[in-house]
Amino acid sequence: MDLIYEIKLLNKNQIEDVINLEKKLLHKENAKEYILYEANENPVSYFYVACNKNTILGYIDFWITFDSATISTFAVDLPYQNNHVGTTLLKEMFKQLIRQNIKYVTLEVRTSNAQAINLYKKFNFKIETIKKNYYKDGEDAYYMVSEVDYVKNYFSN
Ligand SMILES: CC(C)(COP(=O)(O)OP(=O)(O)OC[C@H]1O[C@@H](n2cnc3c(N)ncnc32)[C@H](O)[C@@H]1OP(=O)(O)O)[C@@H](O)C(=O)NCCC(=O)NCCS
After folding, report:
1. For a tag on the chain, would you pick the N or C end, based on fewer CB atoms within 10 A?
2. Exposure pattern of 74-83 as b/e (b: 16+ CB <10 Å)?
3. Closest ligand 1 atom to the C-alpha of 71?
4. Entry pTM
C-alpha cells in the first residue's frame, strides 16, 4: 500500500480523534484526561501525528527532560499498520533528539508486543530490565533504552 501522509505537530482539531485512537489501540481507561494533558499542559511533551488531511494514521508522544527522552505513547491505526508509518514517526522523534543533543531515550512495552519490540530493536532499543506487573491487567513491561548517538548512523544509511 502506498500511503500519502505528512508528519506534523498535533493540532487542537485532532485531539478528539487521537483520544479515540488511544482508546481503540492502547485501551487506556484515562485516554481523554491523558491526551488533553499532553496536548494542552505538559511542558515537556512533543506530540507528532502522521496525517493525510483529516485522517490520522498514527502518532507519537515523547517527553524530553534534560539529556534524556521517554516515549509516552505511540500507535498506528489498524488499516495503516505494517506500512512503515511507525518507522517514520520514530525517525521524526530521533531527528528531534539529535537536534537537541539528547543522549538516550527510554520506553516501556508489553512483553507480548512482538511487533513493537521488533520495531524498537531496529532503532537500537535494548531491553534493560523487566518491570513486573507494570500494566493494570498484570502484564510485565520491558524497559528499553536506546542511545541516540548510535541511531545517528541509521540516518546516514
Ligand atoms: C507498534 C506500532 C506503532 C508499529 O507501527 P507500524 O506502522 O505498524 O510499524 P512499521 O510498519 O513501521 O514497522 C514494521 C516493523 O515491525 C515489525 N513487525 C511488523 N509486523 C510484525 C509481526 N507480525 N511480528 C513481529 N514483528 C513485526 C518488523 O520489524 C517490521 O519491520 P520491517 O517491515 O522492516 O520488517 C503498531 O503496531 C501499533 O500501533 N500497535 C498498537 C499500539 C502499540 O502497541 N503501540 C506501542 C506501545 S509501546
Report:
1. C
2. bbbbeebeeb
3. 48
4. 0.96
Q: Domain map of the chain by residue range?
A: 6-156
Dump the DSSP string for the chain. Answer: -----EEEE--GGGHHHHHHHHHHHH--TTHHHHHHHHHHT-TTEEEEEEEETTEEEEEEEEEEETTEEEEEEEEE-GGGTTSSHHHHHHHHHHHHHHHTT--EEEEEEETT-HHHHHHHHHTT-EEEEEETT-STTS--EEEEEEEHHHHHHHHH-
Take atom 21 of ligand 1 and give the residue whose Cα is closest. 115
Going by CATH, does the domain composed of 6-156 fall within 3.40.630.30? Answer: yes
Q: Which residue has the cell 485532532?
A: 14
Measured from the CA of 83, which atom of ligand 1 is nearest?
Answer: 11
Q: Is the pLDDT of residue 157 over 60?
A: no
Tens-digit pLDDT profile for residues 20-64: 999 999 998 899 999 999 999 999 999 999 999 999 999 999 999
| CA 136 to ligand 1 centroid distance, Å | 23
Q: Per residue in 12-30, pLDDT tens? A: 999 999 999 999 999 988 9
The pLDDT value recorded for residue 156 is: 61
